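Per reviewer request, we include the raw input and output of the structure prediction for the construct analysed in the revised manuscript.
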Amino acid sequence: MKETLRALRAKGKSIRELSQLCDLSRNTIRRVLKEPDPATQEEVSLPLRYEAILPLIKNLLIACKGNLVRVQEQLAAAHSQSLAYSTLTWLVRKYQLREKKPKRVGFYQFEPGCEMQHDTSPHEVIIGGKRIRAQCAALVLAFSRRLFIQYYPCYTRFETKAFLSEALIFMQGSCQRCVIDNTSVIVATGSGAQAVMSPEMVFFGRLFGFYFMAHAVNHPNRKASVERYFFYAETNFLAGREFKSWADLNQQARDWCSEVANQKYKETLGMTPEAAYIQEKPALQSLPAILPPIYQTMQRQVDTQGFINLDHNRYSVPESHIGRTLEVYKYLDKVEIYYQHRLVATHPRSIGQREQRSTIKGHHPTLWRKAAREACSEAERQLRGLNPLLDEYITAFKPHVRGRGQCEFKQLLYLKRLYPLDAFMKAIEQAHRYGLYNLQRLEKLILNFISGDFFNLK
């Protein structure tokens, strides 16, 4: 429009005529005509002062790690160059001293059943009213963009195999290759084209008919199909949602993938991922007829309380196995415990929790310590009911003995039978008055009361 106005004005058209032709106000036309013509305007050259310090600013940006405040201070202190902060930022932006010049990028074209992409990302979720950090694992079919996500408190090789197994069941097949980043969960050594996958994960991929491929370092565009979905899940699925448990979280994530993410129309596909999946499904590799169970096995010794320890949680076993070494099979949702290839116990697995105890009824019979402590022994039963003072002394004496105090009450009954009753009761009265519950000292009191009654030694 500006070029048209300038061309018509050069042909002798008046401002009134230009206003009628272009449907613009005359003030707007006057303002446009006052502006310099970019075609005839010469580029203003950079002052020599700034031109001389450009290399210096570029070197200081590297030394100061991109901090322009420190660059300004170093220019003034070390090089005696006083430069306004706004001028410094203008120079950095105009000549792109901080950022590299953007380069053209290409795009990837995928055939049906050729590739799937897998990655993880940390998300904050609310489970049981608590905000915790969870690892979001995602798998996307590169051709149809069909998505499957799940959440885990941590992401090790055990969770990786469990997730990929569920994801491939959800997809009802697998692609030829699975592109990943250079995570140590799958990669044993190296990176990019030189990455060597863990033998455990290589064998797992063979079971489902695919292989892992790591993209180059700092090249996330190689698996951009899965990267974009993390932001979508964080701002759409997690927004305004709270969950009761990890099982509830993953079930809602599965439903969200089927009902929302895979039903959304995509401009790049010209259809929804679910519609594109219909075209890709015939090209997918079929799943094994019998899917291998995903578990992790280890050995644990039963402690004296009748529990085995696993992932900072405790699971009960029958008390007859105390001290034995048992085999523990950890599945994603349960824990199975075996002894000599026989199932001992099955517990629901405590996920994302610490210091929890899972006890099955019947494993640990009740220990009636309190009832046993309050029970009367035969010696105590023979002592009670003879004298109210003796009963009071026995009641006060019982908390000072261990258990039912069978040995102590036998000794007390022996003293009652051995010495005269009067001396025994006098000693009991005095011991009760002063809180004396040592039977050896009680016997000395009895001997003091009967001294000289049986032997008159000169």
